[in-house]
Amino acid sequence: xxxxxxxxxxxxxxxxxxxxxxxxxKILKEEYKDKKPLxxxxxxxxxxxxxxxxxxxxxxxEYDMMDVSSYxxxxxxxxxVRIDKDLxxxxxxxxxxxxxxxxxxxxxxxYLKELMHRRGAASVKIVTLLDKTDNREVDIEANWVxxxxxxxxxxxxxxxxxxxxxxxxxxxxxxxxxxAN
Length: 181
Prior knowledge:
Helix 2 (47-54) links the parallel strand 2 (38-43) and strand 3. The protein has three helices and nine strands, in the order βαβαβββαββββ. Helices cover 22% and strands 29% of the residues. It has 181 residues and is α/β, with parallel strands linked by helices. It has helices at 14-32, 47-54, 107-118; strands at 7-12, 38-43, 62-69, 82-85, 95-103, 123-131, 144-148, 154-155, 171-174. It starts with 6 loop residues before the first strand and ends in a 7-residue tail after the last strand. The strands form two sheets. The protein has a six-stranded mixed beta sheet with strand order 4-3-2-5-6-7. It has one domain (14-149): Rossmann fold, CATH 3.40.50.
């Protein structure tokens, strides 16, 4: 057995992700061509998406990472956002683009967006690979969305369950038997 066998279905293929990264790259190049944006990846999940996306952006940019948690090892958000690794780069006067793997409840990104505005960012926008709109608990939307996904437990391409499955090259639905207890 392999980790692939733990999935009920594939929602987004590796090829679809690659095509979407190219599409988003074209849009973001135009949006930020003269702004030297600061891209902020939210660890650990956004790492594969951000790594592939920045290769599509042949503009001047900087990037940094934040390690933020509201889930821990739980299946749902605790509602409390904890910053484990903050930015080393100042955001004051910068055009900031959060690069996120998935927006679920929206609590984490709403908190981070408000925080960056308080820190003096010129603008704060969001690009997310996945948007799980059915689970939204707060009023926040991404400026750019790769794919809207149903309220299923998704893993792969950075998304995990107990830190596993992040290395899958596609987005899949984890079989319920692996997380239901």
